[in-house]
Amino acid sequence: QVQLVESGGGLVQSGGSQRLSCKVSGSIFRWFAGGWYRQAPGKQRELVATITSGGNTNYADSVKGRFTISRDNSENTVTLQMNSLKPEDTAVYYCHADGYIGTSRYDHWGQGSQVTVSS
Question: Which pLDDT score is estimated for 58?
């Protein structure tokens, strides 16, 4: 059973920084894509950033240049560094990991971490 445990988040002032980390259980994360999504009150969950097993990254236009996603396969972690935070970044942030081992599909989510940016 794959589990994703998030850490980080909390309250930060506009312009500040925060770091979210996600620990993936087991040793199979190196073959998975990782990502961060967020959901603000009354809105649908949206993609923030993703990183492939090979390290290629993709970002939502709204966070480009401010957020950085990274992974450490030796520690089975995926991290989101968030700089120059804005009030509109306020949301619950979810870690995600997905991939295939053989023909078995894996698709897992973290528990969610609240990030609140005050103006």
Answer: 98
**What are residue 76's DSSP bridge partners?**
none
| Residue (of 55, 65, 43, 41) closest to 115 by Cα position | 41
Please state the three-class secondary structure of the chain as a single string: CCCEEEEECEEEECCCCEEEEEEECCCCHHHCEEEEEEECCCCCCEEEEEECCCCCEEECCCCCCCEEEEEECCCCEEEEEECCCCHHHCEEEEEEEEEEECCEEEEEECCCEEEEEEC
The pLDDT tens digits for 26-64 are 888 888 999 999 999 999 999 999 999 999 999 999 999
